[in-house]
Amino acid sequence: MSSNIRRSMPLFPMGIVMQLTELSARQIRYYEEHGLISPARTEGNRRLFSFNDVDRLLEIKELIEQGVNLAGIKQIFAARQSTMPSNEPVAETVKEKVKKPDLTDEELRKLLRAELVEAGRFNRTSLRQGDMARFFH
Amino acid sequence: MSSNIRRSMPLFPMGIVMQLTELSARQIRYYEEHGLISPARTEGNRRLFSFNDVDRLLEIKELIEQGVNLAGIKQIFAARQSTMPSNEPVAETVKEKVKKPDLTDEELRKLLRAELVEAGRFNRTSLRQGDMARFFH
DNA sequence: TTTGTGATGTAAGAAAATATAACATATCAT
DNA sequence: ATGATATGTTATATTTTCTTACATCACAAA
């Protein structure tokens, strides 16, 4: 499903993610340092977080609040990765590699934009305004 | 509906919006200057755009490509505002004003976070990861 | 108790991203 | 030709984020 593209698209800067998660920059960077998340970077090396990244940070935060340490969280994530069949079969990943060998961030955004325009056109005439939201279903 | 909160939440910095819309910073600022959008600001005065803002910019871009000038676009938006009954009845706006008299950005983000946590909990155990996306339906 | 480790805070300095303002330019209708 | 509209460009200031280093605090192990 192409919603994965959307959910993994680098969109948010550090400041927003801090507010969204109520984590400190230090914490977020520390979690990255330990491989729990891998936000994208701008050309200028600023972190850009995706919806997935924010999701993950919220999970991390919850687990930490429940007393799990980073090592534990790492295991939990790893276990999930290996034991869960995953919505997106591995083949899909391969297929994507084949069909789109290394989408750049810019290409990704073009894709998103295209979908947005389309989604917007959808309920623009009949409703009052484009709804970027329905884009995430 | 509370999806309005989400759709109007200030999330994106200028750089991302430029890529998402393929508009120049100059253009985006110019459109704001002429009242076509009103992005929020950080404490430090940086613009923060919402999904709605991006939607609007994409609309503006399309209309401009179709030869409509800013004055025309302004009229179109104004007309939409007044003639369309709007999904969200006016009463709702009033109600929100009554129940939540002036939500700050921070409060808005707390709301979003809360919903995210909940949404995450939903398909976290049975699926592989939280799905911030389903949050936007 | 002392020591070590994990998780986070804080501060310094550099670099990137963005802000406003001013001036330039191209198109187009008058 | 003139003037307005829309956008590009440049300069300068400010904010935001980056990395690195050191401080701290809680807790487990020795």
CATH architecture identity of the domain at 3-83 in chain A: Orthogonal Bundle
Envelope shape of chain A? globular
> Which structural class do you get from the secondary structure elements of chain A?
mainly alpha
Helix/strand order of chain A: HHHEEHHHH
Strand order of the largest sheet of chain A: 1-2
Q: What is the radius of gyration of chain A computed over CA atoms, rounded to a whole number of angstroms?
A: 17 Å
Q: How does this structure look, described?
A:
Two copies of one chain form a homodimer. By secondary structure, the first copy, chain A, is mainly α. Chain A has a domain at 3-83: Multidrug-efflux Transporter Regulator, Chain: A, Domain 2 (Orthogonal Bundle), CATH 1.10.1660. In chain A, 58% of the residues lie in helices and 3% in strands. Chain A is built from seven helices and two strands, in the order H-H-H-E-E-H-H-H-H. Chain A has helices spanning 3-7, 14-21, 25-33, 51-65, 70-83, 90-99, 105-122; strands spanning 40-41, 47-48. In chain A, strands 1-2 form a two-stranded antiparallel sheet. Chain A is globular. Residues 87-103 and 117-137 of chain A have low confidence and may be disordered. Chain A binds a DNA duplex (30 and 30 nucleotides) through residues 13-15, 24-27, 29-30, 42-47, 64, 69-71. Chains A, B: This is MerR family glutamine synthetase transcriptional repressor. Chains A, B: It comes from [Anoxybacillus] calidus. Chains A, B: Residues 11-79 form the HTH merR-type domain.
